[in-house]
């Protein structure tokens, strides 16, 4: 018996991974998708990616009434499977990327060695959270805690309501500035007495009448009450002063955590893949190609700027097309 070598293996199952699977399957490349099952470091890394923590997606084209993140990912998976994508419920925990033209070898969490001519990495990135039990409870149930203002800030629940942004860098300032268009008041919660973001971003945020900064404060608890349907919803956050230790409560309907993201690339660190200074896979050209022949990347694992479902899907499309072209050049498709 000869050893099976797949044409394409896709690692990850968010918008990028499923879009790559759809395109690769329709190109008759018979892709195999390793969806991931474990909470790795950083976590949580879930099948379906960060959209599994999003209750309502309103900015993805084709869903005029909005759609729940988990439902959207289920539809993506169904579409990929319709065209013949194979789904495997295991994690890829180690990669041995070939540099001599032989197939790449991927190692699974169940101890299997999988060979593939082309590999598409779509493992995404995870938001850095505060680590509070109450925070994650509300983030995973649509209770008013989010790590993406652009994704969730325009939802009806936050319009004309007070909200808080936790952080002090450019990303936090950008998120907070975006929220000033919708919220009644946007509080920026910062643990120090000086913001880390650029002066121009600070001026842009503070130039809004509904923008306020609470200095020397950390969030120690998210306070919630059940709504008319019994679902827990954020109504306030408990703060602690980093100088005096004094505790206080701030009434808000939403809390947006903006303290950075970490790309899910730990399992790739022992490879010869190239990364940028922030740890994202470095794509040196306007394509999905990495520095290793036959290895491609798409979505938030290689995108520190946009981090949207629609851009991740577009990058997954690019990766599948690039992989198809590369396999054709090698006479393997």
Account of the protein in words:
The chain is an alpha/beta fold and 333 residues long. It has two domains: 5-126 and 262-329, FAD/NAD(P)-binding domain (3-Layer(bba) Sandwich); 129-257, FAD/NAD(P)-binding domain (3-Layer(bba) Sandwich), CATH 3.50.50.60. It is 23% helix and 26% strand. Strands 1, 2, 3, 4, 5, 6 and 17 form a seven-stranded mixed beta sheet that branches. The chain has a five-stranded parallel beta sheet with strand order 8-15-9-10-11. Strands 12-13-14 form a three-stranded antiparallel beta sheet. Helix 1 (15-26) runs parallel beside helix 2. The longest helix is centred in the last third of the chain and has 21 residues, at 309-329.
Total number of domains: 2
CATH superfamily of the largest domain: FAD/NAD(P)-binding domain
Describe the global form.
Answer: elongated
Number of helices: 7
The main β sheet shows up as: 7 strands, mixed
Instruction: Kindly provide the radius of gyration, computed on alpha-carbon positions and rounded to a whole number of angstroms.
Output: 21 Å
């Amino acid at each position: 018996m000869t050893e099976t070598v797949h044409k394409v293996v896709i690692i990850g199952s968010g918008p990028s991974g499923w879009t790559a699977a759809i395109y690769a399957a329709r190109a008759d490349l018979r892709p195999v998708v390793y969806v991931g099952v474990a909470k790795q470091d950083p976590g949580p890394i879930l099948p379906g990616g960060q959209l599994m923590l999003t209750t309502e997606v309103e900015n993805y084209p084709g869903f005029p009434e909005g759609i729940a993140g988990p439902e959207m990912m289920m539809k993506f998976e169904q579409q990929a499977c319709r065209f013949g994508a194979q789904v495997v419920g295991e994690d890829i925990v180690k990669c041995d990327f070939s540099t001599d033209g032989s197939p790449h070898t991927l190692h699974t969490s169940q101890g299997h060695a999988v060979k593939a001519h082309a590999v598409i990495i779509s493992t995404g990135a995870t938001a850095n959270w505060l680590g509070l039990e109450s925070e994650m409870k509300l983030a995973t149930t649509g209770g008013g805690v989010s790590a993406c203002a652009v994704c969730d800030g325009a939802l009806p629940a936050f319009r004309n309501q007070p909200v808080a942004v936790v952080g002090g860098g450019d990303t936090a300032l950008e998120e907070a500035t975006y929220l000033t268009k919708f919220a009644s008041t946007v509080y920026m919660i910062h643990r120090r007495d000086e913001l880390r973001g650029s002066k121009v971003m600070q001026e842009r945020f503070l130039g809004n009448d509904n923008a306020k900064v609470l200095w020397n404060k950390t969030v120690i608890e998210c306070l919630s009450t059940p709504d008319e349907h019994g679902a827990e919803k954020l109504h306030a956050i408990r703060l602690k002063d980093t100088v005096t230790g004094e505790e206080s409560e701030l009434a808000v309907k939403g809390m947006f955590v903006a303290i950075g993201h970490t790309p899910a690339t730990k399992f790739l660190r022992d490879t010869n893949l190239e990364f940028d200074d922030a740890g994202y896979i470095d794509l040196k050209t306007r394509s999905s190609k990495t520095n290793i022949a036959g290895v491609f990347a798409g979505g938030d694992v290689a995108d520190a700027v946009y981090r949207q479902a629609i851009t991740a899907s577009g990058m997954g499309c690019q990766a599948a097309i690039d992989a198809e072209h590369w396999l054709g050049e090698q006479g393997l498709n």
